[in-house]
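Standup notes
- DV: blocked on the single-chain target, sequence here:
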Amino acid sequence: MKHNLKEGIAAQEYDVVSFFDGKPQKGNASITASFENGTFYFASEVNKSKFEKSPAKFAPQYGGYCAIAMSEGAEANPNPKSWEVRDGKLYFFTRMFFGIIDAKRQWVKKPEELRDLADAAWAKMNA
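- DV (later): unblocked, structure below
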């Protein structure tokens, strides 16, 4: 499975479990876990433990690429400060022009339709 990794690190060093608590934070390089060829950082041993019990639950959708870009069949690096947990899944979005344009605005207008498009594109990329 493909992942958006920088030097093997997933989610731009963010603790993916922290998004589900509504308080995203950077992880610590000394608290890590591996999943699908990527290294995930965590802010606490508690979050690492939660992740290790069910990594697919916490890993960002589309390998950590921008959900809107994926709905268009493309890969784009997201800004983890633009995110959403919807139906128990973590989605990241791109911000452009110094954060003025946030792709998440498009997503929230028709999330089910865009998710279906992104799911299909992701499946094709990973076939």
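- Follow-up: Residues 61-125 form one domain.
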